[in-house]
Write a structure and sequence with these properties.
The protein is built from eleven helices and no strands. By secondary structure, the protein is an all-alpha fold.
Length: about 240
Amino acid sequence: MPQTDSQILTPTRYELTDPDVRLMLQVRDGNAAAFEELVSRYQQRLISVLEHLVPGQGQAEDLTQEVFMRVYRARASYKPTAKFSTWLFTIANNVANNAIRKLVRRKEVHLQSSPSGRSLARPLDSMAQAASGLMPTRQLAQLEISEIVKLAIQVLNDRQRTALLLCKYEHMSYDEIGQAMGLSPQAVKSLLSRARANLRDILQPYMQVGGRPAGDGEDSIESPPAAKSTGNPKGASDE
């Protein structure tokens, strides 16, 4: 029986370098155990990221299940054109965006606004003032810092928050984040720059009150490790 074109194609670089891509190719071929292994590897990672994008751990868990359902439904048409994690978080980003749009339409997300209609840039100001009264002489505890940073990340707009989380928790490069979000590498770089600037503004009261945190503040949101694109990408934005 002659081989088909798909059977004689040279393996892509992702097949050669990414074990998760190889697992997904096994899923494509009907290997249920390979799918279970991918779920085991990525379930908690997805929940951790989605918890920052949608309200409540329960919804993050539900959306994680939806992501894996989409992965399984797409198995027959899967092609390894990117790292598996990049492909997976592209799906996760789409699922999260859909969920956020539904929440907004149902008015289940209530955004605080100033009298002029602008979103408040410092919703944590009251917490900072309380901290200044209660903790004038000590540094904030690491757990407190972690919670403050999580709340601060929630203040960012959706695109800044998504780019920041993929950089911080998944250690994706500009190119990989761009693939996941449908943006150019330059647009991702601009988003991350704006996100870090906004975090500095939001966290400044805590830095003045409790001392600068070590290793869990906005400066821990480092640039992606991989080399940046040097081309002339379209669509750069710093929302």
